[in-house]
Amino acid sequence: MLNDKGVEEEIKPDVKIGVYVCSCNGSFEKSIDIEPIIDHVRNFPDVVKVEHYKHLCEEEELEQIKEDIKNEIVDRVVVAGCTPSTHEDIMGNILEEAGLNRYLYEHANIREQCSWVHSDMDAATEKAMSIIAMAIAKSRLSEPLIGTEIEIKPNALVIGGGIAGMQVSLDLAQNGFKSYLVEREPELGGRTYGLNTTYPTSNCGICCMHDCKNCKLTPKIEEFYNNPNIEVLTNSEVSKIDGHIGNYAAEVRNKIGDLKKLYVGTIIISTGSKTFDPNKLPEYGYENEDVVTILELEKLHNFRRPSDGKVPETVNFILCVGSRSEKSGNPHCSLVCCNFAIGQAREIKELYPNTNVYVHYMDIRAAYQGFEEFYAEARDMGINFVRGRVAKVEKIGDKLMVRAKDMDMGILLKIKSDLVVLAVGQEPVEGTGQLAKMLNQELDIEGFIKNINPQYRSFEDNGIYSAGCVLGPKGIRHSIEDAKNAAMNAGNLLRKGRIRLSPIKSRVVDANCDGCAYCIDPCLYNALTLIEYNRSGAIKKTVERNEGKCRGCGVCAATCPKKGIYVSHYRPEQISAMIDAALEVA
Amino acid sequence: MAEDDFEPSIIAFCCNWCGYRAADSAGIRNIEYPTGLRIIRIMCSGMIHPNYVIDALTKGADGVIIFGCYREEDLRDLGPTKYKACHYVDGIKKTENRAEAIKLMLEDFGLEPERFRLERIFASEGQRFAQIVKEMSDSLKSLAPNPFKNS
Ligand code: SF4
Ligand code: SF4
Predict the structure, then answer these.
(1) How many domains is chain B built from?
(2) How far is C-alpha B30 from the chain's CA centre?
(3) Dihedral sign, CA of A156, A157, A163, A164?
């Protein structure tokens, strides 16, 4: 094995490997024969103990492994049994509890990848032996690994000051953590700020920060600006971010060009979404003054027509504008538009009982508490729900002609209308892509920040969380839930103050690296830099790896032509030894 | 060894997130595949240096396969419900470029192109995993023995 200085070092043969073969409650004794495996494994020179257990998941049996470690019978553990996808962490903890480094554990997956997929007992038994031999080969060469402990800067950067971002900052502040809230618009509150009413509660709602006619002192925003733990930076955008979990440096620039540098431990992305631009669907006649979106309707005084200020006698709502159809916008359902439009339709009906209100829909998605009832009530109020697509909206005189299909009746309708309201969906907002790139976040295929499955997230936290519509279309209550969740994750990190990084990172072998820099560009996390230093009077080039940024993917190692860099726990010698073991005929 | 008994040895490098879990998923569903497969788990398919592939083949493996994650553009074709789990932005693309180099290296070593494959897979595709392994095993059976075997 090459050490850090590139000197060939003999691996100390005095490892004491314990092999614990588990047959999962006897379940795979049907397809593999355990006894010959035990006899075979016993012959390995560095295996000091091999034992068959029926159910290693059980406390007493796990206790046995701990005892063996504590009594210094074994100093490396191989468990042959189920998949490491579920049990590696558990076993790592067992080792640690017994005082052994968790990376001295190795698994041999003889369940999912052997006993469960082969019915020929001889072949499966032989394969199980080989899988265990591979694990032993790796274990023999494994080394204790400890990640570096780093400090977590005690504050957060929240990008985007809509309700999600505001809630994140508030929750963090309540827990005593400072956050900087950066918003590119002059006002906080995002889209919610312009809403008069939220549904189905029909009140000034969950967040209470609307531009209410009689209320200038909107409590949440007041609370916000007065909170010593929140620094609001409006009219500002994040222009640069560098660093890693616990220690990010961000540059924030405001509209007049002032630059502010922030150093934070965690970042929350809450930049939201934008609404679909109905100009993309000319059939809906959005160029007409009296065709408005649901958000524009909020701004109309008492729902009067924009063109002449008259009370509308007939109003047509069109749902799913830009949603649920790849051809006309986006494949996804925007989730909030049905309920929002129904709420507005009800308000019009309440204010003007004689006005005819039509809602053209494909399906009504009224999930979650209170919405189905809210919708049923709307029908009872005399709002006409028409299932089918609207084909065209045209201006005829001072009216709008809505041509629509009524699929239930199987007829084509022509409705003379005064006002047409488009329930536009949500799309990724400009800049989401750049931000994602800057922060190494992945996007989903529509361009929202990808909602990472928490199962995968556990692997290694990068201290970046997202909340609200930047993850996809969402209503207020779910944005708030997201925000609380993100604030909790961020808060947990900040509370720790220090964390240990995963030790599975690339390591540079200075003696082999000649500074050719081939590995630098392929690294997707910008973790490598070329450096020069003075080695006995001569300039030596080499690369330096930033431990916080490196994710241990090994792309660098696979690029290097000179064995100049490798990833710990996946060292070339280990992989090569596994190949040898795999090809050995038992 | 009679032709019929020949069980090709295949080394599979499986990334931790998709390839390895696809193999597990074949297991959970008890989908049989040839016993000659030996899986080496790595973090990312982008970790595989071409030397590992050549190393395995010149040590006598009949075939080498790398299982990695899907790419962004595949998802566009496969549909949004498919969950991409690549952990390293697009490590798989690096693997793909490298696969080209590996193919050229096989030529230099006088090895048939069938001996090396790169496959993209979802963690849930146990059925496909088994099928790919079976196909590869079958195609290796029709080749002359690996000239590096027992040498
Ligand atoms: S590719 Fe290898 S030799 Fe070149 S700079 Fe990177 S580590 Fe050094
Ligand atoms: S292991 Fe991956 S993230 Fe780390 S330096 Fe290498 S290429 Fe970059």
Answers:
(1) 1
(2) 20
(3) negative
Domain limits at B65? Answer: 8-141
**Confidence category of residue A3, pLDDT binned at 50, 70, 90:** low
8 A C-beta contact, residue A375 and residue A364: yes
B35 CB neighbours in chain A (<8 A) are 118, 120, 123-124, 126-127
Closest CA to A141 of A504, A570, A533, A561: A570
**Edge-to-edge order in the sheet of strand A419-424:** A291-293, A419-424, A314-321, A356-361, A384-387
pLDDT reading at B44 higher than 70: yes
Nearest to A103 by CA among A80, A68, A78, A123: A78
- The helix/strand/coil state of A264 is strand
Q: Are A387 and A408 in contact (CB under 8 A)?
A: yes
Report the first-to-last Cα separation within chain A, whole angstroms. Answer: 26
Q: Six-digit token pair at B96? A: 């793909």
What tokens were used for A176? 């005593």
Name which residue sits closest to atom 7 of ligand 1, judged by CA: A564
CA separation (Å) from B75 to A63, B117, B130? 45, 21, 21
| CATH number of the CATH domain containing B81 | 3.40.50
Residues 6 or more apart whose Cβ sits within 8 Å of residue A353: A382
Task: Using a CB–CB cutoff of 8 Å, tell me whether B87 touches chain A.
Answer: yes
CA distance A355 to A361: 19
* Nearest alpha-carbon partner for A581 in A133, A36, A108: A133
pTM: 0.84
Q: Are A425 and A334 contacting, i.e. CB atoms less than 8 angstroms apart?
A: yes
Q: B151 pLDDT band (50/70/90 cuts)?
A: low
Q: Is B114 on the interface with A (CB under 8 A)?
A: no
Cβ pair A80, A135 in contact under 8 A: yes
pLDDT digits (tens, 9 = 90+) for A367-424: 888 889 999 999 999 999 999 999 999 999 999 999 999 999 999 999 999 999 999 9
User: Is the preceding omega at residue A454 within 30 degrees of 0, hence cis?
Assistant: no
Q: In this model, does residue A296 exceed pLDDT 70?
A: yes
For the segment A228-241, what is each residue's pLDDT rounded down to a tens digit? 999 999 999 999 99
Q: Would an 8 Å CB–CB cutoff place B99 in contact with chain A?
A: no
In the chain, the amino acid numbered A177 is F
Please indicate, yes or no, if residue B81 is contained in any of the structural domains. Answer: yes
Task: Establish if B150 belongs to a structural domain.
Answer: no
Helix, strand or coil, per DSSP, at residue A23: coil
Give me the residue label for tokens 């590995």.
Answer: A519
Work out whether the CA dihedral A6, A9, A11, A14 comes out positive or negative: negative
Residue from the list A85, A332, A524 with its beta carbon closest to the beta carbon of B88: A524
Does B64 map to a domain? yes
Strands across the sheet containing B116-120: B37-42, B10-15, B63-68, B116-120
User: How many CB atoms sit inside 10 A of residue A395's CB?
Assistant: 15
3-state class (DSSP) for residue A15: coil
Domain assignment present for B151: no
- For B63, other C-beta atoms within 10 Å of its C-beta total 27
From the list B35, B49, B88, which residue is nearest A127 (CB)? Answer: B35
Q: Quick one: how far is CA A254 from the chain centroid?
A: 28
* Res. B123 pLDDT band, cuts 50 70 90: confident
Exposure string of A33-53, with b = 16+ CB inside 10 Å and e = fewer, is ebeebbebbeebeebbbbeeb
Burial A131-160 (b: 16+ CB within 10 A, else e): bbbbbbbbbbbbeeeeeeebebbebbbbbb
Distance in Å, alpha carbon of A114 to nearest chain B alpha carbon: 8
Split at pLDDT 50, 70, 90, the class of A243 is: very high
The amino acid at residue A512 is N
